[in-house]
Amino acid sequence: MAVVDEVPSPVQGSVEGGSTNVSEDPNGVGRSGTRIAPIELGRLHVQTPVVLSPMAGVTNWPFRVLCESYGPDGLYVAEMITARALVAKNPKAFRLCRFAPSERIRSLQLYGVDPAIVEQAARMVADGDMADHVDLNFGCPVPKVTRRGGGSALPWKLDLFRELIHRVVAVCEPAGIPVTAKIRVGIDLDHETYLDAGRIAQDEGCAAVTLHARTTAEYYGGHSDWSKIARLVQELDIPVFGNGDIWGAQDALEMVRETGCAGVAVGRGCQGRPWIFSDIKHAFNGDPSRMDPTLGQVCEVILRHAGLLIEFYDGDESMAVHDLRKHIAWYLKGFPVGGQTRRAFMECETLQDVRSCMDGLDLSSKLPDRLVDKPRGRVRYAKKVHLPYGWLDSRTTSHEQRESLFGDDPMDAGY
């Protein structure tokens, strides 16, 4: 773990541009005088090594802007873009590639199986100055992705994995765009891939690797195995970001201390809690202050989020509110809000509907201590892994497998 012995003065924060609302860490974390060192990704300087992990349907620019407003010097990655859809100029793919003017680093994640198609997509990004950083998705465990040999299934095929990274780096490097890779531990515990994948990523020029410390089979269940992150840190010279079960600042500190990782990546832990990036920033700077918003302050964030989504959907309030509904469920989780009110929020069609649902809430209430920094979002346990026929028979792809994988795939070109 790279550290700098320096303790800045405590920085007080607020949830939404109003009164200060912080709480002291009961464990006294951060008083030891240790600050986590910044990260260099090629020409990019990441002052606070915390990453917003790309999440489909979640990390569009409105949510990224919210998260970045709390931790303005981290890395905030857009949701996964399928390479074939980008090459096919799919309108939704281009919408998801949009960045807000305030975003300091434009960070884009690409997904694909065919190295030639992913290379074309990367060239579009580089030639069109569409992003400052490209992340490659080798971590998605969703069946519709892995059954095509993509996501977390792909690193099993060492030749395909190496070729894909090589092609993308060859396109991005001359443009000054660093490439990183997001991986999982493996397909299951009998078919681990993370060490081979990490070495190949480093050898082929990746600037960093993020390891979600679960297998495909484990999906999002149980607790991620942070010892795998520690092992990968020992194996590589490039920075390793740890991912998995970061629900609060204390988790981030513990992961860094246990594994020696260069930084952390936060996925489900920020759903409904974009201010987690402020908490982690404070923790990494040796500052024990944490956000402790009232329900009223959370409602202010919800309304701000709604306004950004309306802009994202070019003024279509109905689409924006429909998108907002899942976020509202996360924002309200743990607060004393009755079931009838929660259902009413899920039926909102307009921004006025959302405001009306907020009437009658106890805006002074706070999240109970027993629920602070607890899991939110998807908590799904082990499930059957879907792979192409004969995928595990060899670590390399056959001619027949490549022909099958690289054919036209409607899922890749559409959304």
Automatic annotation (TrEMBL):
The keyword tRNA processing is assigned to this record: yes
Note the coiled coil stretches, chain numbering: none
Which molecular-function annotations from GO does this UniProt entry contain?
A: flavin adenine dinucleotide binding; RNA binding; tRNA-dihydrouridine47 synthase activity
Chain spans, region Disordered: 1-31
- Keywords of this protein's UniProt record, alphabetized? Flavoprotein, FMN, NADP, Oxidoreductase, tRNA processing
Presence of the UniProt keyword tRNA processing in the record: yes
Q: What is its EC number?
A: 1.3.1.89
Family annotation (PROSITE patterns): UPF0034
SUPFAM superfamilies for this protein? FMN-linked oxidoreductases (SSF51395)
Please give the cofactor(s) recorded in the UniProt entry for this protein: FMN
Task: Give the matching Gene3D superfamilies.
Answer: Aldolase class I, Putative flavin oxidoreducatase, domain 2
| InterPro entries according to UniProt | Aldolase_TIM (IPR013785), DUS-like_FMN-bd (IPR035587), DusB-like (IPR004652), tRNA-dHydroUridine_Synthase_C (IPR024036), tRNA_hU_synthase_CS (IPR018517)
Per UniProt, residues of the DUS-like FMN-binding domain are: 52-354
Record protein name field: tRNA-dihydrouridine synthase
What's the source species for this entry?
Bifidobacterium bombi DSM 19703
